[in-house]
Structures are given as C-alpha cells and as structure tokens.
Amino acid sequence: MMTLKSRFGEIEYNPEEVLHFPEGLIGFESLRDFVVMANFKEGPLFWVQSVEDPEIAFVLTDPTNFFPEYKVMPDSNERRKLGMSEGEVSHSLAVVTVQEGGKVTLNLAAPILFSVSNNQAMQVALEKTSYTTRHPLPAA
Known about the structure:
Blueprint (H helix, E strand, L loop, with lengths): L1 E5 L2 E5 L5 E2 L12 E4 L8 E6 L6 E5 L14 H7 L7 E9 L5 E3 L5 E4 L4 E4 L11 E2 L4
Antiparallel strand pairs: 1-2, 3-4, 4-5, 5-6, 6-7, 7-8, 7-9, 8-11, 9-10
C-alpha cells in the first residue's frame, strides 16, 4: 500500500488498482495515474484523485445513469491504446461539472473510456455529436 496527501487528507491506495491514463486527460496530459476514491455517500458520483498532483481531482459518473441511450464504443485504435482485445468490455465515464447556481452538467462530448481488465483509461473527443462538454442533466 502507498499513501498520498490530497485535499481529502491522506489516501492509502494499492498501486495495482490505480486508474492509468497512458495519454493523460485532455488539458491534463502530464497526469497519468488516478486513485478512485471510496464513495461514502449513496449515489452515482465518485471522485478520482491524481497521484502526481494532490491539487487535482475530478468527479466522474456513468452517464447512462442519466442518459440510458448514451453509448460510446472504442474503435480499433482506441482498443489498441487501452490494451483491449476485440470482444473485451469497456465502460464510458463522464466528467461532472457543477456550474454557478448549482447546475450540474456532464462532459458527454469527451467521455473517458475505461478497460476493466487492466485499469487503463483514455479520454476521447467525439466528432459529429449533438452532445456537449457541458451537457445539462435531463429534467426530473
């Protein structure tokens, strides 16, 4: 086990369970490793904390919690970068943003593709999509 200090205090984590982004995230290309934080509250949101920079953490969610039809499949190049075989299952995640006034949006135009088998992930920019980087949640 290893320990890192962050805005959440000291976090103990297993290096084998770190979420690795070989190319970093868009705008944060130098940050490659993130710890998935334990979710102490009930709900669909969770934090990922950068191992390299204790000031950087993101809130993520499975976008199908809000948009059941949302599905992004990695192409062959993305599968190769993630070290995935052809039939292997991947998951899509979205970065959550809280706007002024408490409005919550999801970045559905640049989802994170995640390979469950090896903890590899990458953020991809979708082309020709109606989704946006600050896509509002559907009305309740």
